[in-house]
Amino acid sequence: MTRILAVDDSKTMRCMLQATLVDAGFEVDLAEDGVNGLEKLKNTDPDLIITDINMPRLDGFGFIAGVREGKQVTAVPILVLTTETGEHLKQRARDAGATGWIVKPFDEDKLISIIRRLVV
Amino acid sequence: MNDLNDMFFQECDDLLEGLSSGLNNLEDGGGDAETVNSMFRAVHSIKGGAGAFGLNQLVGFAHALENVLDDVRAGKLTADETVVALLFTAGDHLSDLVDAARHGNDLPPEQGASILSDLKSVSGATHSGSEPGGDAAKEEPPAFEPMALTVDGGLPALADMLSPVESEPLTITFKAHPQLYANGHDPALLFRGLEGLGNLTVEADLSTVVPLRDAPWSTPSLSWKITIRPDDLVDEAAVREIFEFVEGLCDLEIGAETAPPPGDADSVPALAAPSPSAAPGQATQAVAAKNAPAARSSTIRVDLQRVDRLINLVGELVIAEAMLRQSMDEMPHSANTGVDDAMSQLKQLSGAIQERVMAIRAQPVRSLFQRMSRIVRETSKEAGKSARLVTIGDATEVDKTVTERLVDPLTHMIRNAIDHGLETPEQRRAAGKDERGTVTLEAAHRSGRVVITLRDDGVGINRARVRQIAQHKGLIRPEDDLTDTDIDNILFRPGFSTVDAVSNLSGRGVGMDVVRNEIQSLGGRVTLQSEPGAGTSVTISLPLTLAVLEGMVVRVADQTLIVPTSPLREMLQPGQARIHTLCDGDRVLALNDELVPITDLGAALGYRADPVSLDLQFLLLIEGDSGHRSALAVDTIAEQREVVIKGLEQNYESIPGIAAATILGNGKIALIVDTDQMIPVPGKGSAVNRPVPGVTGDALHA
User: Fold this and answer.
1) How many angstroms separate the CA atoms of B514 and B520, rounded?
2) Complex ipTM
3) Chain A contact set for B289 (CB, 8 A)
4) CATH number of residue B69's parent domain
5) E-assigned strands of B118-193?
6) Closest by Cα among A99, A32, A37, A25 to A62
7) Beta bridge partners of B658
8) For residue A64, what are the domain limits?
9) B279-288 pLDDT, tens per residue?
């Protein structure tokens, strides 16, 4: 089963994501910020990661960089899900190693179809 | 979705509290980078959630506020006095918008229009034209429009009606940069995505493959030639959407005709190095964060009902323990000291459990105090006065219900303090005081109660004037010998107001008597001290919890009743009181030249038909919410103790004159007297005169 790690500091957003992803048949792990996300990755091996950008302790950029640094061989797709729309921020995320960028509020079907395009 | 909705608003409350405490920090000059950062994140999270729920007004405002905070965060804007004041106002408005949204409303746009334009003008230089949604709409590629794919298949007729375009084959040349793989993309998955759009052929350009022995593994550079004949209604945009995320990570050409292979692609890869400049810094940050200990305290949210059920059960446990102890005492003294030891251990444990469980409902008064800082800002602005709020002991924990129900009384008290207590800046300067008045809110635990004090450094109470008005209103007589405290406490009498023209701020037809009522209904007491010229302080003393009540266990007509101690003022032994009988047979107690009506508790509750002789009765002098007093006649007073409150409505039905019930150590139920209803209202006679069921068993025991 496809396993997804969703990282967002908003509990509301985590729950929405979880509901959407579980409905679509994915297995979901949640983390509340970048640090927590990296911790979760020690024990889980998700097929895809969804992360917010603005988070306490370690933001999305740092988190993505942390993931990429840790796992060089098989690059897990990382989707950024944020309200940010700035082009320079998108570029920064891409430079850090993000796979895709989706603007909140997200359309459920669109999110799922994008995920399906990114996982084997 | 409702649960999510609730969760969102609950989260908003927390975020708003964070924003507010950040603002206070900023105002006090203590705002470091992380303070501003966390404020930004708070507003950002509200915006994000609001977007998900389609709360556009909230999104728009949060966005404008977020921009200002972003500028402050980036050092483009200095958080000077004006900016901080604007942030405070904006924070208040944001909280109003959240409240409105919680109730499914929008606020009239004109309400926040000036704040919004202020915010925009402050951040205008750097964020011009940056509207929420606007950006997204602009930057989102057209490929994000709903795809026509969904119409395909089932509705051929409709599909034909919509521009039936004979699709031309597209030719795509695609060369992946190393970064593409590093970012989690997989060309095979891209091709799979294309496959869904039409008839596909993919051909790898093997000429660019380096021999295995020479292969630099970090820079694979395969390229493909793809031909796709899109299905009906699939246009080039849909094809481009597949490549949306790899844009910039590959050489990509999409065209109707066969494009020549990019000749220079081999020699000069556009983005060959997989380590962009921004990465090292972030990597360091990530490592630092990884090594940092998890300093965050872990909390869980629990449904309040669950906690209350637990509190109830623990109450039962304490009662069961008391029952057990009582029956042990009644047994012939056993030589088995082991049981005694076990009993005392059980008592300690159940007491400790009760204390801990009560603590679950407790929450710091911080959020309450923070709400008050807004009242101070608004009131002083309206009243043309300058005031600041100083809070002390805001980590003090109080029962959640208490903090909720303190909002109105405290709001009223603060309005009073600023409106009536504080002088205008000119007056203050003339009196040699700081132009800016100080209102202090202090919370502390004192001998098992919570004490909340509100102090102002204003003029204090003008006692001569209070006395004059009270006489005028017939509340006191000219010859009354009143102490300063007596006069100060006239303020709590119903219908007293020192301001002739009802002020818009404090005198909304509501006086300090309402404050006192509310506090008393929480089992609390409120007192007032004032020093002319130096200010006034009002002290509220509250029980730590509403689940337990301090009461007098009394016996009336063979019934055991509980009289709460909070309205209790005095107790008189039989024969100690001077009792007069009035012409209509009513008996009154003469106390300090005042005549207090006597209520025979047994008769009032219908336990006995005829009033008994008061010669052998104890009298409990109580003072009710209204300030009126009454003396309750009871047969005996057994003891003073804490009792666990059991609601009557849930288990039986509401009984006039009875507030609730409790279970005593012997397993018997005792009713708790509603003292307020035992005080005759002038002109209406005694409120209660209906038989109350005699309770002997445990019929009420749910």
Assistant:
1) 10
2) 0.78
3) 34-35, 38, 57-58, 62, 66
4) 1.20.120.160
5) 170-176
6) A37
7) B673
8) 3-118
9) 444 444 444 4
